[in-house]
Amino acid sequence: MDLNDKLAILADAAKYDASCASSGGVRRDSTQGRGLGSNEGMGICHSYAPDGRCISLLKILLTNHCRYDCLYCVNRASSNVPRARFTIDEVVRLTLDFYRRNCIEGLFLSSGIIRSPDYTMEQLVEVARRLREEHDFRGYIHLKTIPDAAADLLQRAGRYADRLSINIELPTERGLGALAPEKDAGAIRRSMARLRVHIDEARAQAQEAGRQPVRSLPQARPAPAPAPVFAAAGQSTQMIVGADATDDATILATSAQLYGAYRLKRVYYSAFSPIPDASAALPLKAPPLVREHRLYQADWLMRFYGFAADEIASPRTGGMLRLEVDPKLAWALAHPERFPVDVERAPRELLLRVPGLGVKAVDRLLLARRVRRLRSDDLQRLHVPVRKVLPFVLLADHRPARAPDPRRLLAPARAAEPQQAALF
Ligand code: SF4
């Protein structure tokens, strides 16, 4: 099989993984004539999942052969798909070639389980090692980590990769047991914990190194000591949504637990895509894409707006996010007693709960209110959706007469029911 055919198979097989955003890395480039490439800027290849989502990526699998038989996965052992496998040299060469042609900004590399988790992980690490050590490659590298791999392999992976990720796969242990019986929820969490320890240690050592500059000559200006590096862009994970009956409340509770326990950079939610020859244990239809979108919005509320998971969705309220309205507006409509909020006096936490006000807008309002009274015009100048904000706030020139009216607030959203355009 020639390289192009392998690429066609192994790039296609990798497109189901959504956890490939490259935010949070350390800036690295070759502007001083040293090394190759940079990890900044746009232009990483893009691919489309069958349901039309655009996923930014440079993504390939080392191989789509896999010993495991996860029911939701197109690459599972029992799947009838064409198989291919890159050699380490081929992946290195492809990455460098694409890089030189300015087609990509980095490498996202995952793999099916070849002989054993350790063997597979060794191969992934070796690709990253060669790129960094032999080719001085300064682009972004994201390695998908094999959870059962030995601890020293995870440690080596972190030396070369900007980001490591371990897929939690399903939101619950029971779901994982039912759909991916060979995967071990305990091993996944142990590996996440190990990565967290290494990341925290590297950060602490980097801070320490910054405090103790190195002076190479007596008269030279001290330079920061080289900091140890370990997955500077942190770790992330991906959860499949809609492959089992787990509700949004449980999904968000699992995410909150993962953020708290392992300090993940991101949890990615990937709406289940039906696959060919699927098991009867899987649903026939994909969940609505808007569910995935609402989960990302809810996740954002937990990470940046101070919401707890059970405030956004809880079993008491049916466990599912409302699809027709974003979770922040849904929370505000369910808590009319908290509104209107006095923009001139309310604490930051409460302002962050006002629908339509983002983190930047709130911080600017906090600065502005120190020096003058705030009026509706100030909202306009901040480019916030004023119509959405006004029913929930008190301003010098605006006092809503009654509590926000859900029917009026939801009317525009209902009128413009979004439609997924056909891509192909
Ligand atoms: S281990 Fe990964 S590649 Fe293999 S079947 Fe499971 S999800 Fe697919």
From TrEMBL:
The name this protein goes by in its record: DNA modification/repair radical SAM protein
SUPFAM superfamilies: Radical SAM enzymes, RuvA domain 2-like
Source species, domain of life: Bacteria
PANTHER family: ENDONUCLEASE/EXONUCLEASE/PHOSPHATASE FAMILY DOMAIN-CONTAINING PROTEIN 1 (PTHR21180), TYPE II SECRETION SYSTEM PROTEIN K (PTHR21180:SF9)
Keyword Amino-acid biosynthesis recorded: no
Residues of the Elp3/MiaA/NifB-like radical SAM core domain: 56-298
Pfam families hit by this protein: Radical_SAM
